[in-house]
Fold:
Amino acid sequence: MSDTFSLWGIVSAIGILTGLGVGFGALLGAVSERFKGDEHPLVDQIDALLPQTQCGQCGYPGCRPYAEAVNEGDALNKCPPGGEATIHALADLLGREPEPLDGEAPSEANVAYIREAECIGCTKCIQACPVDAIIGAAKQMHTVIEDECTGCDLCVDPCPVDCIDMLPRSTPLGQWQPVVLPTGVIASDRTPATRGPDVTPI
Amino acid sequence: MLHPFDFPGGIYPPERKDRSTLSPLRRAPLPSQVILPLCQHSGRPATPCVARGDHVRVGSLIAKRDGLISADVHATVSGTVGHVDSDAIHIDSDGQDTRQYLPPLDWRTTDAPTLLMRLDESGVVGLGGAGFPTHIKARVIEWHAIDTLVINAAECEPYITADDLTLRNYPNDVLEGAQLIAALCGAQQIIIGIEDNKPEAIAALEHTLPDSQPARVTLAVIPTRYPSGSERQLIKKLLNRTVPSQGLPADVGVLCHNPGTLLAALYAVRDGQPLVERMVTLTGEAITQPGNYWVRLGTSIETLLSHAGLDNARLSRVILGGPMMGTSLETLNTPVKKTTNCLIAATPDELPPAPVESPCIRCGACESVCPAQLLPQQLHWYARAQDDDKLTSHHLFDCIECGACSYVCPSHIPLVDDYRDAKRRLRYQQIEAAKAEHAKHRFEFRQARLAREEAEKQARRQARLAHNKPTDGNASNESTSAPPADLRSLRIAQTAAKAAVRKAEKVLARAAQQEPQQPHEDLETLLATAQENLKAADFQLAQARESAKAPTAEDTP
Structure:
């Protein structure tokens, strides 16, 4: 009985537990120091919600810098290409109040198109493109790779001969699927009903 | 008969198959013009390799496959190529019907690579409806071990009888084709899954079954129930294997083929005939000569139906495919494609328009008939509310769009329409997300490249200055070098950049090993970015070392 509460037992228990605590604490500390990442996870999450057009309409040079600024408290409503959807997603993520969009959201997805006959080959648009989507060389005609273009507009202003247009993005046939289904076609066994107003799926 | 395993749900719609099985198999007349779409299969459209005015013969290659998941397109009549655009190739027939077939092969003595190449260059795709290129399916052995080939002859949709007539007329050829595919993919057994409403086809198969060599062939007659012809449901029923969610039958060691596909594969190998015609069921009350026809691909549906005696006065609509999963055609001026298995010219009494939709009464009828064990009612709410997270967690993408839920719905809700719409929206979001990710990588690469170029420029400038003014290098270094660089932090940055390059290389190597067929552009961009960063760090470090070394060298003498 007295063995249970002997001083030695208590001291050794405290000693072992303290030792374990110190040991594992040191291990965890060493591991966290060894495998420390330098990136900020919240900035990554914010960056993932931005549309990555790299257009700079927010006043920052690209989406990542804006993500960093938002993380430090900048307004959520500076991204016109993202529109309301991006503002709401950001507000959800950060627990802030959504604000109305500062600027005008584009009505549809655009891509840049160079009127090649008028291009003088000045390479100014190539230097402006944030995603290297324009190919060409000095005094040679330039052209835009449509699949890579984000529609950011940044190439339009530098062009000295105004030969760049923003045109709607073409959709590959494979990505367009009509919703046409003969609903309830084998309905002849039921009571024939008159055709009512079309109910379009939401 | 195998073990009677079963899939849940299912419905018993009226079959209405008699109309097209009573008359014998016929051949549709040669069309005067064909329109051959470049995308008659799943995957990327083919690239045209003929121009206006070229003379082609039946079986001439007119469009080459583009990428892995794609298929060749061949001329289906002899004549002159007319209009060629990004969607289709038009050919005007000269009525001669001269042929340009490939040399015949004996599949029993030919090696597998030659056979695979033959399937590839014959443009054979799955004729059941999905149009998946057959040579890719036969190549599945590179990724999965296959033990069973299932011939999907269930043909559970009402009206369609093309597989039934194929088996009645060509049982030997279908089995031969099955043996060919089984030998290619290493399957030891072949199971024919067929519904019990096709007694003539079953009799024909039983007659020819004993002669089929070398794989063992079993005939499994299953009770008629919709949708037992769906791949997953048939495999569950025949073999009691469950194909995993988002997976393929190959994941459970099974390959599933339609009898028509097997026939086309055999003809491609044995006769060297590319896929230029297919069997199409023409049926419905609005045509006078219903039946199954061999039709050249690219024949206009209007011509075809008028040949079968279309009565325009009685016609209400034409459905492409079966009544459960097919689509109403907006216009008849459209060609027969590789995946066109059935055309129903329906009268208003036969297939009346959909009744007015009423609100969901939560009766649960849809849940009891769903063969994929989903919750159609929940999916309906979430699809209408566009709740994408919930749709994904309720496995929307496991829906096979069979239409059983819409069929039983007492409120006439077009459930499958909602699901298709939601699926399309989610797919579009995925594509957009992938695009944004891609743009981000390209932006990062550009930033890294600019940083590297800047560092390079600085290094060159410094070297030039050091070269020009060796005597007062101390002062010039002080003035020109960018902010005094801390050697230690630069060395750490260089090590980190090296680690990033190694990591990117490893990820790319692993991806290339796991999916050798897929392009890995994004990973390559990431690797290039890491390499640019490393170069920039190298230059900065070298520059800092130079500037650190230069003053000390001056000081020592």
Remarks:
- The first helix of chain A runs from residue 7 to 34.
- The radius of gyration of chain A is 30 Å.
- Residues 179-184, 187-202 of chain A have pLDDT under 50 and may be disordered.
- The domain at 108-170 of chain A is CATH 3.30.70.20 (Alpha-Beta Plaits).
